[in-house]
Design brief:
Radius of gyration: 13 Å
Distance between the termini: 33 Å
Order of helices and strands: HEEEEHEH
Shape: globular
Structural class: alpha+beta
Strand content: 15-25%
Number of strands: 5
Strand order of the largest sheet: 3-4-5
Number of helices: 3
Helix content: 25-40%
Length: about 100
């Protein structure tokens, strides 16, 4: 499995503490990039710019990705464009939240 796929799989284990759903199914991860030195750049957003769980989620991402074998340095780029909306959620996340 490629390193970007391993990182993506690991991110399914990072849970948004308010919603109780992983950040991948919530659609918060916009991109995972790996450079030639196996450094990781994660482009992500949060449900709102004022999200009170900002530090918790970011720390969870750093912690979990650092556990993936072969990962070099980790950089998280938090972006607000495009803005997150519920349409970015997986069908599984929508089902868990009772929205369709």
């Amino acid at each position: 499995m490629s390193l970007d796929k391993k990182v993506g799989a690991a991110l399914f284990e990072v849970i948004d503490p308010e919603l109780g759903i992983n950040i991948m199914d919530l659609g918060l991860i916009y991109g995972i990039e790996v450079d030639f030195d196996d450094n990781i750049r994660i482009v992500m957003t949060l449900t709102t710019p004022g999200c009170p769980m900002h530090d918790s989620i970011k720390s969870g991402v750093l912690h979990r990705v650092s556990q993936v074998e072969g990962v070099g340095e980790i950089k998280i780029d938090l972006v607000w464009e495009p803005a997150w909306s519920p349409v970015k959620m997986s069908d599984r996340a929508k089902e868990m939240l009772g929205i369709g």
